[in-house]
Design goal:
The protein is mainly alpha-helical. It contains 4 helices and no strands.
């Protein structure tokens, strides 16, 4: 992706992903606390797909785990947030 786009376009994609990812992750945590597993699965799936497309493998794998078992409490929510933040920078 980085080779196909100029630096400005790539920067814009990363900035848009950062906003999108923060909102999606917050929704995952909120719906998990509300025990709404259907919504957890929807948001985890969507964010996992975006993370996969951008090559954020560690983040995508953690979201895949959440998507597979949306009823389970989210282990290490802070770690997931940190990994996402580190991947964006």
């Amino acid at each position: 992706l980085a080779l196909a786009l100029n630096q400005g376009d790539l920067l814009k994609i990363v900035e848009e992903f950062e906003i999108h990812a923060r909102i999606e992750l917050e929704n995952i945590f909120r719906y998990s606390m509300a025990k709404d597993s259907n919504q957890v699965k929807v948001y985890a799936h969507r964010l996992k797909g975006t993370a996969t497309n951008l090559g954020l493998i560690r983040v995508a794998e953690k979201l895949k785990t959440i998507e597979k078992d949306p009823n389970a409490p989210i282990a290490n929510a802070n770690e997931l947030s940190h990994d996402l933040e580190q991947s964006i920078q």
